[in-house]
Amino acid sequence: GIQSLKASGLALLLAVSFISLSCCAPQRLFERRNWTPQAILYLKGTQGRQFISEENQRKDLYNRLQLAKEINLDQSRFLEDNLLNWRK
Length: 88
Fold this sequence. Notes:
Elements: H1 2-24, H2 37-87
C-alpha cells in the first residue's frame, strides 16, 4: 500500500544521497598528509596541556582525599579525648 511505497521512496532517497556523498569522499582510506613542523608542535602542545590538566585533576583529588582523611582523624581524636576526659 501507501506505507510500502513511502518506505521504498525513502530507501531510494537514502541510497541516492549515499552514492552522491561517497563520490566526494577521499578515495584512499588513509590519505597521507604533509604535516608542517608548526602543525606538529601545535598538536603536541594540545596533548601536553591535556596531560598537564589531567595530572592537576589527579593531584587535586589526592589532596582532597588526604585532607578528608586528616579531618576524620582529627574528629576521631577529638571524640576520643573528650570521652577520656569525660570519664575522669
